[in-house]
Amino acid sequence: MKHAVLLLVPVSAALCGCLAVPSGPAPECTKASDCDTANGEICDEGTCYGNPPQGMYAVVISPPAERQDLVPRELVMPAIADDGWIADLALQRPTVFTGRVEASCNPPTPCDRGAIGATITITRPSMFKGGPGFKVIADAKTSLDSSGPSFEVALPKTAANDTQYLVTVIPTGRGDEPQGGSPSAAELYPPMRFTLDAKNNSYTKTILLGGATQPTVDGTVVGALGGGLSHYRVVAMGHWEASSPPTEVSSVDYTGSDGKFHIVLADNLVGTVELVARPAPNAPAAPTLHQQQVSSTSSSTRTLVQPANLGNVKSYTFPIRGVDGSGSINGVRGARVTVTATIGGVTTGQTLATFAAEGTADDSGNVSLSLLDGSGITPQYRLDVVPPASSNMGVLFDMPLSLAATPLLLPTRIAIRGEVDDYLGNPLKDVSVTARPSLRFTWSFPDAPQAFVSAIPAATTLTPETGEFALWVDPTVATLWGHYDLAFEPASKARAPSWLRTDIEIPRDTTLSTVSVDQIRLPDAAAIRGLVIDPDGIEVEGAEVKIFRLSASLALCTEVLNAPASCPIPANLQGRGDSDTAGIVRLTLPR
Amino acid sequence: MIPPSLSVGDQDAGVNSPPAILAVRSDQQELPPGETVTFEQGPTAGSINATLIDTDLGDTLYVRAFVEYTVGDPKPARVTCTSPPPTPAAAQRSVMCDVTALCQQLDIGQTRNLSVVVFDREPLESGTPAYQAMPPGGLKTSVFYFLKCIAHEQ
Fold it and tell me: Which of A22, A169, B45, B152 could join B10 in a cystine, given CB atoms 3.0 to 4.6 angstroms apart?
């Protein structure tokens, strides 16, 4: 575009008697010469379309919820013409995966051909690095019928070189407490996982749960004096793949008064599993018991022992305080307070006990928590506090906790200040600015503090006429100095692109209360558009189109201590739009 | 005779219209209200996109996601994002919300109640209901989900 500013003359408003809508910005163009035609731009709909930036992009098209006959599609390196037209935004028909979930038949036990209730999760990684990937979750129904499908799932078809789908089947009935009557499917059968090709139009499978040769873990949950403990939910946590997160990989069992349990492990697990016995939520507060390094390939017997001297459950009130802008000390309403304790070691055969209690500070800034008061646990208590996103008070992480009701004084956050301008240098109003811990910061921490940092709500604000913003962030967490990303999202339909300023480092100076960032000048926006159609060539309304900029750089993962092995740096989302009634979707890309 | 103006204006008139949530999307799919939705815990959780509508074209809309919020035990929003009035003016708009902090460590493996609420006035720091009180005349609408949190990749 040539950056010409056209004047919109509100003649009609002066005459009155007509339906006037709020005045918007003047159209960007009324004729081709208003646009940068030398670089391919055209004038249409009052907008200069085209002259897209060079770069490697990927597009994800998702159908509206009511179009169950269509599935999402990923396009790597879509063709974007000089006039801004995105080719081939065609949604596709799915492969339909149907079937039943049944129990495997192990003679001489009589075969039960009823359908078992289960949750079926089907995933496939994205075709491009850092893309959102595909995930669908479906329910398989419980039924006494011995025939007919109990689930149906629509999947994008796989092409010759595509990764296969991973299908995880988790039997239902995994609640905190046993369901009444007969055992649930989850109490009888472990989850299972298999891969699936979806090259054909349809695929049918009977999924068989259980088996005669699956390893089991039998055992007892006992108190410090050896008596059985009831109302514990026992399950094994393990890995389907080395890099996958730990998930429940066994049947579940609930202890009775004798404390005994029996669980069945899934096949094809990687490494050992961890037994986890968690007390029922409505039972008196007690630690969760863990035992690690349990074989996932052979059956074993284990005893989980509750630590001694836990004491009794008692309610404690903690005042959470902070220094406000006027220098006075006040309660911090809405602060989330978590008290944890870990007792014991992780050596094979030993029981590790973990305890957690959580509460939210009331209007006065006080929080009440139910804690155990015995000498076996009180020295182990650690405290985390996270104030609300809008607060100028900071977090506390992994602090020793005294049960005396002394006020807990929070540190003060630091303000990141700046100004957002458009590409011409004019302040931009109504830009949503969000500060979040950068990947460099987050992945510098080991697991526990990493989870803590991720759980701090992102600070967000909207720029006024002056384009200025101020966001409160924690300068340090667990002695590490912060790095933050700033995400800028202009108003819906605005002629400015979304933008990300990455890895703003907080200066290592404890006396600072403000960090000023350079003027943020959003790049010029290239307007692009395309037509979303179904396989019959019919326009699709309400489809979502996202465009990502691809980056092959994984350098960050080598520069930080605790990046996940798969280095899942998200692809940079550059534009997003929904198709209109004519199937046209309009997006902007930063130049 | 000068006819009366039928302007819809860009400022609030006497009667405020409620905002509404048309759709909430995550990754590649629309999240069906009332169903179970799954999010990763941590920095790879991504974002959600909320499609909103408000016939008060000048209203800024405030989206908040609450987990396990009850009147008896109100908790502050874990996700906050703001949608300014679209330019040019339109009733429908969309906003991206970072959901990194939606799932916390103690949520993993549990099923939680998740409410996504849109307000047409900025929620106040104090007042009742806690974290959802607005200046007089403010209106809100919400959609409910069951939230399941899973651990992030190792």
Answer: A22
Residue B140 contacts by C-beta under 8 Å, 6 or more apart in sequence? Answer: B18, B19, B117, B118, B119, B120, B132, B134
| Distance in angstroms (rounded) separating the CA atoms of residues A416 and A486 | 10
- Tokens 């010029």 label which residue? A524
The ipTM, to two decimals, is 0.86
Helix (H, G, I), strand (E, B) or coil at A39: helix
Q: How far apart are CA A442 and CA A449, in angstroms?
A: 8
For residue A373 the two structure tokens come to 């008061």
The answer to whether residues A29 and A35 touch, using CB atoms and an 8 Å cutoff, is yes
Q: Cβ contact (<8 Å) for B27 and A137?
A: no
- Summarize pLDDT for A486-523 with one digit per residue, the tens: 999 998 777 889 999 999 999 999 889 899 998 899 99
Average pLDDT, integer, range A24-35: 86
Q: Which of the pair, B69 or A448, is modelled with greater confidence?
A: B69
Query: What is the rounded distance in angstroms from the CA atom of residue A232 to the CA atom of residue A237?
Result: 15
Inter-chain CB proximity A462 and B60 less than 8 Å: yes
Does the CB of A8 have a partner CB in chain B at under 8 Å? no
Please state the length of chain A. 591
Closest among B108, B22, B118, B125 to B79, alpha carbons compared = B118
Are A388 and A335 within 8 A, CB to CB? yes
3-state secondary structure of A404: coil
Specify the pLDDT at position A421: 95
d(CA A255, CA A222): 10
Tell if the CB–CB gap between A436 and B100 is shorter than 8 Å.
yes
Interface test with A, best of B105, B107, B110 (most A CBs within 10 A): B105
DSSP state of A185: H
Task: Return the CA Rg of chain B.
Answer: 17
- Closest CB to B89: pick one of A18, A22, A64: A22
Residues of chain A with Cβ-Cβ distance to B47 below 8 Å are 573
- Contact call for B95 and A19, based on CB within 8 A: no
Within 10 A of A77 (CB to CB), how many other CB atoms are there? 12
- Let me know: does A340 contact A356? Beta carbons within 8 Å: yes
pLDDT tens digit sequence for A433-488: 999 999 999 999 988 888 899 889 999 999 999 999 999 999 999 889 999 999 99
Retrieve residue A565's tokens: 């092995």
Whether A136 has its CB under 8 Å from any CB of chain B: the answer is yes
Residue A200 to residue A184: CA distance in whole angstroms: 34
Q: What is the DSSP string of A492-525?
A: TT-SS--EEEEEEEPPS-TT-SEEEPPPEEPPPE
The reported pLDDT for the residue numbered A4 is: 43
Dihedral sign, Cα of residue A177, residue A150, residue B25, residue A54: positive
Q: Identify the weakest region by mean pLDDT among A223-227, A330-334, B1-5.
A: B1-5
pLDDT of residue B29: 78
Q: From chain B, pick out residues whose CB is under 8 angstroms from the CB of A566.
A: 153
| A14 and B CB contact within 8 Å | no
Structure tokens at A157: 């078809």
* A302 phi and psi angles, rounded to 5 deg: -135, 150
**Which residue, A270, A266, A286, is CA-closest to A278?**
A286
A454 touches chain B (CB under 8 A): yes
Beta carbon pairs, A and B, within 8 Å:
207
DSSP of A3-22: ---PPP--HHHHH-SS-PPP
Closest residue in chain B to residue A242, using alpha carbons only? B154
Q: Do A65 and B94 touch (CB under 8 A)?
A: no
**Closest-CA residue of chain A to B94:** A492
Q: Grade residue A317 by pLDDT with cuts at 50, 70 and 90.
A: very high
3-state secondary structure of A205: strand
